[in-house]
Amino acid sequence: MKNDEKALRVKYVRALEKFTNSAVNALKREDFDLTLFRERMQKNAKIFEKVQAVFLDSTYTKALELFVNECLDESLDQKTLTSKANALYKLKNNQSYKKDKHKIKFKDEY
Predict the structure, then answer these.
(1) Cα dihedral angle (82, 87, 91, 92), rounded to 10 degrees?
(2) Residue 106 is assigned to a structural domain of this protein
(3) Which residues, 6+ apart, have CB-to-CB distance to 80 below 8 Å?
(4) For residue 7, what are the CA distances in angstroms to 36, 47, 50, 105?
């Protein structure tokens, strides 16, 4: 049972990341058009019809889900979505780095 939940969660997170990568690539284009972006996001939202939504616990995955919902929101513009995408990538990268004082090697030297 636990493996099934994990598999569902992985599929859902991968779908969220696939949607997010597509949205970010569209937002960064030089010839950005808001109507084409909205059409593309509605088309990409069909990914979620195949995948079951799952409860997400980490801050990054919650932010990922929030960004996807904001991309599907009609009221936000390119600048707002781009800044939210940058904050999302900052959050993702922040989790992969540790400060020196938290590393074991640093503790051995003192």
Answers:
(1) 10
(2) no
(3) none
(4) 33, 16, 14, 35
Tell me how many domains the chain contains. 1
Six-digit token pair at 66? 């929030």
Predicted confidence at residue 19, as pLDDT, reads 93
The answer as to whether 74 is a domain residue is yes
Q: Please write the tens of the pLDDT for every residue from 29-70.
A: 889 888 898 999 999 888 888 888 888 888 888 999 999 988
| Domain that includes residue 63, residue range | 2-96
Rounded Cα–Cα distance for residues 5 and 15 (Å): 15
pLDDT of the residue at 97:
66
